[in-house]
Amino acid sequence: MSAVQLRGIYTTALTRLLLDAGYEVVNASDPIERRFDATFASAPPAATIDTTRDRQGVEISGTSSAVADLRETIAGLGVDALDWADPAPIGSVSNAAVSGTRGGGAIIDLPGGATGYLPFDDVDGYVDTGDQLRVQVTDPSPPWTDHDARVSTEIVVEDAGELLTLVRGADGVRANAPEGDATALVRTTELLDLEVPDGWGLRWHRDAADADLDERSAALETAIDRAETIDESIDDAPEPEDAAPRAVVTRSDAERSTAWIWFGRESRFALDDHRRTVTTTIPGHHRIKAADRSASAGVDLAEGLLSTTDVDEGLPFDAVARQFGPTHGDRLEIHHGKPDGRRLVLGSGEVTDYDPAGTLTVRREISSSGEYDGLGTPREPGDAAITKLKEGRWWYPTAYRGPDGERKGTYVNVCTPVELFPDAATYVDLHVDVIDPPEGEAHVVDEDELDDAVEAGHVSEALAKRAKETAEKVRRALSD
Questions:
Q1: What pairing do the DSSP bridges indicate for beta strands 359-365 and 164-168?
Q2: pLDDT digit string (tens) for 31-89?
Q3: How much is the pTM?
Q4: Where does residue 349 rank: exposed (0-12), middle (13-18), buried (19+ CB within 10 A)?
Q5: What does the pLDDT look like over 413-435, one tens digit per residue?
Q6: Res 103: pLDDT
Q7: Fewest C-beta atoms under 10 Å: which of 368, 393, 395, 452?
Q8: Residue closest to 62 by CA, chosen among 128, 145, 22, 5
């Protein structure tokens, strides 16, 4: 199995999962070594796993084969763990076209329909709409956010173990370390019996000073192989002005991939179970930590005071909500995820009712005109959308009412289990819905869209089955 490096709030649970699945975990942090009472090897990983900035999931980047295996393993945590391949993986090199500008940078069209953002400060010279240039993805972005991948015109090879960087177009050997360590790193480089390709400069990082010669050699050898492949691919590729957007590094031995996994509520509790086999883990550990950065310290304190035998079942929703939100009077957005990885924001409203058991009512004012989809009733300014959200439920209803209280129908979204974070209710919509019009019977709609999502590989058969069963139960309840 592949060697994997992990970082972020899911590290302990995923380390347990991956070790049990036969993977080798490398470059582990001190807390992980203490927690597992083990010493992990220091070696270049085939893939890295990092928590996303919004803490909703993980990024997996590395060799295509390693990423594919890890993606399958981790996505198997639960029926509501959803995964997507990134068309613009980290480290990928492309001919790209500038399609516009925004703020202090340019919007870049990348292969596969992806877009990137190139800060003007990272470019030598002037960049404008219509230009073609060669870029490398330095920081990919999850599909459920509205951020573009960051790109740069500088081509580098980053060591996943964070020991070194090779820079194309630079020369010599340098070290970003205290003076004594820097001098030693530069002088001992020639002992590694490896030759950096012409046209590349070697930059050692601070952590390299603590690595032994074998670790440095392995990291540099891997980076050199990657640099040579990039050189060959660039030599074979057309110039940006002749073909853009177009992938440049396409050779199979150089394929690098990035995949994203979004964890739903059930998957987070499955992660809790894996973590609990290693150390004290309160119910909802990952669910709470995903809610707010400031929650991490509270969770760590609580777990430090408890033993595993003291832990009761169930997420302490009221305690978490009262500390971090949402509760009565708060503003709450509704983050409507789509199975293809996108995320829509269905506006925001005021929490008008709060139940300590984990149920909220959110009221949103309607400001536009038209017709409510599926209900066939008019949408008018002044109407109210009243949404009831319950933590962990696979559906939620939105009732539409006119200014005088007139009922205009109810629309029930079927989705992955709802999570009520401080600023947003989060889930992934599963296409199939239940319509309850003012007149007539409640009925299920959009099953064909769910079937299409299954065929496209965005929704598993098991998840689709759960969605249809949930929709039918809701329909029967509304019809009784």
A1: unpaired
A2: 899 999 999 998 889 999 999 999 999 999 999 999 999 999 999 999 999 999 999 99
A3: 0.86
A4: buried
A5: 999 999 999 999 999 999 999 99
A6: 87
A7: 368
A8: 5
Q: How far apart are CA 336 and CA 254, in angstroms?
A: 36
Report, as an integer, the average pLDDT of 259-266.
Answer: 97
Domain locations in the chain as residue ranges: 1-89+255-315, 93-248, 331-479
Distance in angstroms (rounded) separating the CA atoms of residues 447 and 363: 28
CA distances from 68 to 65, 73, 345 (A): 5, 9, 30
Backbone angles phi, psi at 64, to 5 degrees: -60, -40
> Which of 2, 52, 7, 55 has the alpha carbon at shortest distance from 27?
7
For residues 26 and 258, what is the distance between their CA atoms, to the nearest angstrom?
Answer: 19
* Structure-token pair, residue 274: 């894996």
CATH C-level class of 93-248: mainly beta
What whole-number distance in Å separates Cα of residue 222 and Cα of residue 202? 13
Block residue for tokens 């400001």? 367
What kind of architecture, by CATH, is found in domain 331-479? Beta Barrel (2.40)
pLDDT at 250: 61
Going by C-alpha positions, the residue among 88, 190, 59 that lies closest to residue 148 is 88
Stretch 235-256: mean pLDDT, rounded?
Answer: 82
pLDDT above 90 covers what percent of the chain?
Answer: 77
When pLDDT is averaged across residues 322-342 and rounded to a whole number, the result is 93
H/E element holding 16?
Answer: helix 11-20
**How many other CB atoms are found less than 10 A from the CB of residue 187?**
11
Q: What percent of the chain has pLDDT over 70?
A: 97
Q: What is the mean pLDDT of the chain?
A: 92
Give the whole-angstrom CA distance, residue 380 versus residue 251: 56
Q: Are 95 and 237 in contact (CB under 8 A)?
A: yes
Token representation of residue 294: 């400031």
User: Which whole number is the average pLDDT over 462-480?
Assistant: 95
For residues 156 and 93, what is the distance between their CA atoms, to the nearest angstrom?
Answer: 10
Cross-strand partners of 351? 362
Helix (H) or strand (E) run with residue 291 in it: helix 285-291
Phi-psi region of 59 (alpha: psi -120 to 50; beta: other; left: phi over 0): beta
